[in-house]
Amino acid sequence: MMSRTEEDFELELRSLPGVLNVGITKHSNGDVNVVTLVANSKDPLATRSAANQIASLYYPEAAVVVEDANRALIDSQRGDGPRVALIRADYDTTDGFCEVQLSIEGRTGIGRAGSGPLIGGAEATLAALRDLGYDVPYSLMTVTNVTNGRDWPVIVTLRSLANDADRFGIARSEDDLVSAVKATLDSLNRFLSTLEGRV
Amino acid sequence: MRKEGDDDSEATATLTSIHAREGGPDFSSEGYEPWLFQTMLNELSERELGVGFIYSILELFATRHGLNDVAVVLVNEAFGTQMFRLGGEPVTADMAAHLNASPGVYCEPDTVPSPECDAVRTACQLALSLHLARFSAAHDPLTNISNRRSFDEALEVAAARSARYGWAFTLVLVDLNNFKAVNDKSGHEFGNHLLRQFGYALRQAVRQGDTAARIGGDEFAVILSNAEGHESSGFTERLKGHLVALGNPVEFTIGTASSPRDSTDPSELLRMADSRLYEKKGIRIS
Questions:
Q1: A105 touches chain B (CB under 8 A)
Q2: pLDDT digit string (tens) for A43-85?
């Protein structure tokens, strides 16, 4: 049975404009782990921000994912599959480890790796994808932080384990870690949706 | 109940049965299956119906009919379209795009007679409406914290416990400084934005078990459980910190009264806290 607090939490999230569905995933100890919203919102960023605020009041540790129902419809019409979303990326400066949490269709995967925010971020992303059940036949070759004076995109190169067909990804975000994660996902863009081995 | 080994995407793809009924909910017992009516009565006897009831119903419904998956799509006047899936699992975005078509109960496999699906949908609609009504009655719509009515109830309960068992609590009244001038200068929309932020900061600043409420236009109140008057400084510092983090420029003044030290009478506690608040503001009241 849901507690009154859980019920009110879900009701508040459902009261946000455009929210169609709320899914709550819990740890085995009962703590709320991930809150997934499917929204038909004109402003998904505002929805995400408001949902994060509400979640921080009830369950500060929970990650919030907002999926856009409109985009899914467009993707399905284009033939694309659902997308892997970044939930959070943390870098612990004390031990140099990165932890990346990804989500797709309400499932989440977590990966950890050392070696700082750039290499660690990319390796943790690959680990999180494998935790999600993807068989990713690539290894990390390079992670480059390009400094050109205006912005600092990160370029990730993955080397195929089967042949020499490398994959490249580029992204620029608020920090190196998130850029490395997004560049890694970018390098695998349109590859993940072709995989049969997903859980 | 979902069966082990079931494939999510297959279940999603086959959730296609739509059982929709025109018109409003049927509140009579004849409108429900006996098991459903009994479940509603059981839940009502334990507590009021809410979102949790919807998941309880979906669980029972799936178990009763051996369903792999079930979702209900409702249309609520205040919320618009709402989807609930068995076990509180997230509806995928693809699934949402598919289910968005029509309110109803979507079953996998589609083996359930329509009347029972209709009854389930109506019961879920009722639960959502009741939860919304209950929440709205107790909360301030702008800030989503407790409203005056539920605050008064909470204060009476706290004061009665304090009188009976000696449990200490502190009542904190919070008044925003010069808020009328902000409203006049920057407009009510901006003023409402600041109030929403203030409500959010207040919710962050209180501990679990405390009560935060908006009791007037720019007046807020907090019941700090197990706290003597001097312990309210921690709350004040937390509140200031959260306001700074939000970039909210509003300043405030507080007045406190503690029970049982000052009084165990709710009206007297309010009067004392109010008097101390106005003293701090340099305003004398008769």
A1: yes
A2: 877 888 889 889 988 888 888 888 877 665 444 444 455 678 8
- Residue A176 and residue A145 in contact, taking contact as beta carbons nearer than 8 Å: yes
> Dihedral angle at the C-alpha atoms of A75, A78, A84, A88, nearest 10 degrees?
-50
- ipTM value: 0.77
Interchain CB distance below 8 Å, B50 and A7: yes
For the entire predicted model, the pTM comes to 0.68
B146, amino acid identity: S
Specify the pairing of strand B69-76 against strand B104-108.
antiparallel
Q: Does A80 touch chain B (CB under 8 A)?
A: no
CATH code that applies to domain A4-78:
3.30.300
- Point out the residues of chain A with pLDDT beneath 70: 70-82, 147-152, 164, 190, 193-199
Identify whether the C-beta of residue B143 lies closer than 8 Å to the C-beta of residue B199.
yes
Contact criterion met (CB below 8 Å) for B146 and B154? yes
Question: Which chain B residues contact residue A25 at CB under 8 A?
Answer: 90
CA distance A158 to chain B (A): 29
CATH architecture under which domain B148-280 falls:
2-Layer Sandwich (3.30)
Domain A85-194 classified CATH 3.40.50.2020?
no
Question: Using an 8 Å Cβ cutoff, are B242 and A60 in contact?
Answer: no
In Å, how far is B259's CA from the nearest CA of chain A? Answer: 27
